[in-house]
Amino acid sequence: MDQKPTISQDVRPAGAGKAARRGLGRDAVVASICGAIVALMVGASYAAVPFYNWFCRTTGFNGTTQVATAAPKTGPIARKIAVRFDANVAPGLPWKFEPEQTEIEVNIGQVVTVYYTVTNQAARTTSAQAAYNVAPLTVGSYFQKINCFCFTEQTMAPGEKREMPVVFYVDPSIVDDHDNDGLGTITLSYTFYPLRDPAVKPLAAGENDKRKGNL
User: How many CA atoms lie within 13 A of 56 on its CB side?
Assistant: First the structure.
C-alpha cells in the first residue's frame, strides 16, 4: 500500500502566543523608559549651564562678581583696598585689549569708574564677547558691578578703537567676613572670546561713545 506522507504539525503549548505578546509588550515599555531617561539626561545637561551661571551669580562662586543697580546705602568706609585690572584675548581674536590703569586704590564702598581700551587690529569687522572673574575667588560675592561690557556682543569695524567703562564698588559687608581680614588686593580679570557668526548690527554715533565720567 502506498503510505500517505506524514505532515508535521507545530504543536505549541497553550498560552505560548499570549506569553510572546506579553514579552514584546514589556520590551516596548522598557525601550520607552530608556528613551525617556536619555531625553531627561540630555535636557538636564542643557539646563546645567544656565543653572550654574545662576548659582555663580547668586553666590559669587568661582569668582563670579555680583550685579548692583546703585551705590551701597552705607557709603564708603575708611578701609582701603587695591584693585588690579587684567585683560586677555583668546586665540584667534585679532584684538588689542588692555586696561587704562593696571591698579588703583579705593575705599571699600566707593563707586569707581575705570576704562578698558580695545582695538580691532584686523582688516575686517570682527565680533567678540567678554567673560570675567575676580581673584581671590572668595571675594566674588562682595565685588559689585553697576555697569560692565561683559557678556555683551561687541562688534568692531576694521581698525576701530573703543573705550569700555566698568563701574563697580566693593561691598562694605566684606569687613564682617573675617576670612578676608588680611585681604589687600582684588584682581578683576576679563577675557574676550571671538564670535564666529556675529550678528550684523548698525553702528550709530551718540553719547554712548563719549565718556560720562565717574559716577
Answer: 15
